[in-house]
């Protein structure tokens, strides 16, 4: 039983190393992770931690859990938008491959615990998504860039509406909903 835990710990550490390689735009690692079904759960964990860290300072537990859950839903939605716009909507392997790479790249968002700098660092996720879309879907740089930027814009609008815009809880109270 102890040996099994050591093996699991090593594999988790390996995924963290691979996540860092993805952040460095290592295309070989992106290709490997895209095909690695075991990377799915580690990507979900890394993304969930990223979302929780956004709300960690001065928030209660429910907001931290909401942040983690929203981040996981958002990465699935982002992968779905990119997938649909890449005209590969019938092939789930590419969808999950793109999801895995970008979910592991969520390790970059751990920097969000540093005000302002963390947000600036997290912008590197856009080039990561562009390169991973090229790698996973075989898109040109131009097509990949347009698809990723449109997907990012759509998710930013949705996120803004949910957390600070007309759909936020504070605004619903003010409007009497």
Layout of strands and helices, then pairs:
Blueprint: H1 2-23, H2 27-35, H3 39-54, H4 61-85, H5 92-104, H6 117-122, H7 125-137, H8 141-163, H9 169-175
Helix pairs in contact: 2-5, 2-7, 3-4, 3-5, 4-5, 4-8, 5-7, 7-8
3D structure, described in words:
The structure is a single chain. With 177 residues, the protein is mainly α. Helices cover 76% and strands 0% of the residues. It has nine helices and no strands. It has helices spanning 2-23, 27-35, 39-54, 61-85, 92-104, 117-122, 125-137, 141-163, 169-175. The longest helix has 25 residues, at 61-85. The radius of gyration is 17 Å and the shape is globular.
Can you give me a brief rundown of this structure?
By secondary structure, this protein is mainly α. It has helices at 2-23, 27-35, 39-54, 61-85, 92-104, 117-122, 125-137, 141-163, 169-175.
Give the tags.
mainly alpha, 76% helix, disordered N terminus
User: Strand-residue fraction?
Assistant: under 5%
- Strand and helix order: HHHHHHHHH
What gyration radius follows from the Cα positions, in whole Å? 17 Å
Please give the share of residues in helix.
over 70%
Overall strand count:
0
Task: Specify the overall morphology.
Answer: globular
- Mean pLDDT figure: 84
């Amino acid at each position: 039983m102890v040996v099994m835990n050591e093996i699991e710990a090593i594999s988790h550490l390996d995924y963290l190393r691979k996540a860092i390689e993805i952040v460095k735009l290592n295309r070989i690692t992106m290709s490997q992770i895209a095909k690695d079904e075991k990377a799915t759960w580690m990507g979900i964990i890394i993304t969930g931690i990223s979302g929780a860290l956004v709300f960690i300072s001065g928030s209660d537990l429910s907001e931290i859990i909401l942040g983690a859950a929203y981040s996981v839903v958002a990465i699935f939605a982002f992968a779905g938008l990119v997938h649909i716009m890449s005209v590969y909507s019938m092939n789930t392997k590419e969808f999950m491959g793109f999801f895995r790479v970008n979910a592991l790249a969520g390790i970059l968002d751990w920097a969000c615990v540093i005000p302002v700098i963390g947000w600036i660092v997290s912008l590197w996720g856009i080039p990561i998504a562009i390169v991973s879309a090229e790698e996973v879907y075989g898109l040109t740089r131009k097509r990949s860039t347009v698809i990723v930027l449109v997907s990012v814009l759509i998710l930013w609008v949705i996120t803004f509406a949910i957390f600070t815009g007309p759909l936020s809880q504070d605004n619903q109270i003010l409007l009497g909903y």
